[in-house]
Amino acid sequence: MINELQQLGKDALAELKDAKTLDQFQNIRTKYLGRKGLLTGILRNIAKVSDDEKPLFGKLCNELKNSLNANIDEALQKHADLKNQQDLFNDKIDVTLPGNAIKCGRIHPVIQVRQEICSIFASYGFSIVEGPEIELDYYNFEALNIPQDHPARDMQDTFYIEDNVVLRTHTSPVQVRIMEKIQPPLRILSPGKVYRRDSDVSHTPMFHQIEGLLVDQGVNFGDLKGILASFLKKIFGESTVLRFRPSFFPFTEPSAEVDIRCVMCGGKGCRVCGQSGWLEILGSGMVDPAVFKNVNYDSEKYSGFAFGLGLERIAMLKYGISDIRLFFENDIRFLKQF
Ligand code: DAH
């Protein structure tokens, strides 16, 4: 038995010498010292050892067990140190490599145009205000002098939420909401999202508009022309040529659409301006007395002008973009150009 024990010790040490991986070390521990291990097996047979030999046998068994455990622990420690060193070696940092560029977001082109327009009008003394996108029929149509049978109310154009609740089709209702709250004089600019049932290369169901309104005593069409001309030259350049074209909007009288000479062809006629040499930029006019009446303004005392423009359209012309849908596809290759 004692011989057997000594042989077992030698075998174990030999195996330990050859072991390299964590698994192999664990396996050796289990093989000799585990519950069903070889050394444990021999210890169970202590009954067969003669009484004389028992003390020596027990001592040897303990020594072997302790030395095996110590050897395995030491080997495991060495193994861990080695692995640490290896990891350090593998992970070494090459400080001369170029760094990882941190990707930086950009402001969406439509929002850039909005910011630019807002800051121009802020410099003219306009306050920036906002109104709800879910709007009452009253503000979107009725109060703006758009009668029940006006084409703008056609189910084709308007998203109805309930009979008298719509997704606003323009930012003009903000005019009314503000005038209900504030007495003249006032100058406001209201950017925001608007919704129409429309979708093609130049229409999306949601797009952005900016509404402007100025009310005071003695405001006339010349003031409207002056401010819009100054504004459009700031956006499209000093040499921009404007044209005011008579038009109709229910909430302004007289009304005008403002065109600029085509920024693409300089007026010669091209695909962008439909060969006309002019680009429609915004709608405008003197506030209709019927609108003033709805907000209890005295139209004998006060007059004002209003205008509305589409932000995507301005951004398309400014950046030469031919499909409005690009603004909403979120293709990073498109967006990172601005
Ligand atoms: N609300 C008009 C539209 O969406 C644009 C507009 C035209 C606004 C003339 C105005 C205005 O304030 O005076 O087509």
* Domain module tally: 2
Strand element count: 10
Radius of gyration: 42 Å
- Report the uncertain regions: none
| Count of helical regions | 11
Mean pLDDT, rounded to whole units?
Answer: 91
> Which superfamily, in CATH terms, is the homologous superfamily of the largest domain?
Bira Bifunctional Protein, Domain 2
Give the termini separation.
87 Å
Q: Kindly report the spatial arrangement of strands forming the biggest sheet.
A: 1-5-6-10-9-8-7
Task: Walk me through this protein's architecture.
With 338 residues, the protein is of the alpha+beta class. It has two domains: 2-91, no CATH class; 109-335, 2-Layer Sandwich (BirA Bifunctional Protein, domain 2). It has eleven helices and ten strands. The strands form two sheets. A seven-stranded mixed β-sheet has the order 1-5-6-10-9-8-7, sandwiched between helices. Strands 2-4-3 form a three-stranded antiparallel β-sheet. Helix 1 packs parallel to helix 4 and helix 5 crosses helix 10. The chain is rod-shaped. The mean pLDDT is 91. Residues 170, 172, 211, 249, 252, 283-285, 306-308 line the site of 3,4-dihydroxyphenylalanine. 3,4-dihydroxyphenylalanine (DAH) is lined by residues 170, 172, 211, 249, 252, 283-285, 306-308.
